[in-house]
């Protein structure tokens, strides 16, 4: 947790601009090039970017509550008890810090993570949980765990945090709607 807060503090005041976001997404696309046709890249990348945004915002909101309630442990416990304290509750197994450190069974782990977020936040059902990261075609995984891990690591770049103070509120929506 302390390491995560240090990363957050290191990027304070530095906003992700459209050019950097486009480069970051290009790097992400390069990780899954080959097994997918280009129009399908978005099916894998955008749910993960959205999940990262939700997770980073969740972490920021818990940090704000930490200042209000005195310590992170208390704030985290209160959020666990009352999910309305945050915009979107992100279950622990779906938080980016867990995803970024998962090394085996990543396709199933990602699918379970987005489904858990949708279960906890019904407004996101049918939005974040539409991709099966473990999907197969002709008996073969469409995107194997190695490529998914490379994709997650690109998205895990600490220079591209998606928290409350890291991006303009409409930068992601504007880019994802083009």
Strand content: under 5%
Shape: globular
Tally of individual domains: 1
What is the CATH topology? Ferritin
Helix content: 55-70%
> Roughly what is the average pLDDT, rounded to an integer?
87
What does this structure look like?
The chain is mainly α and 178 residues long. The protein has helices at residues 2-10, 18-32, 41-69, 72-81, 96-101, 106-120, 145-155, 171-176; strands at residues 136-137, 140-141. The protein has a single domain (15-57, 91-176), classed as Ferritin (Up-down Bundle), CATH 1.20.1260. The protein is built from 8 helices and 2 strands, in the order ααααααββαα. The chain has a two-stranded antiparallel ribbon with strand order 1-2. α2 (18-32) packs antiparallel against α7 (145-155) and α3 (41-69) crosses α4. The termini are far apart.
Blueprint of the fold:
Layout: H1 2-10, H2 18-32, H3 41-69, H4 72-81, H5 96-101, H6 106-120, E1 136-137, E2 140-141, H7 145-155, H8 171-176
Label this structure with key terms.
Ferritin; disordered C terminus; 2 strands; mainly alpha; disordered N terminus; 2% strand; 178 residues
Brief digest:
By secondary structure, the chain is mainly α.
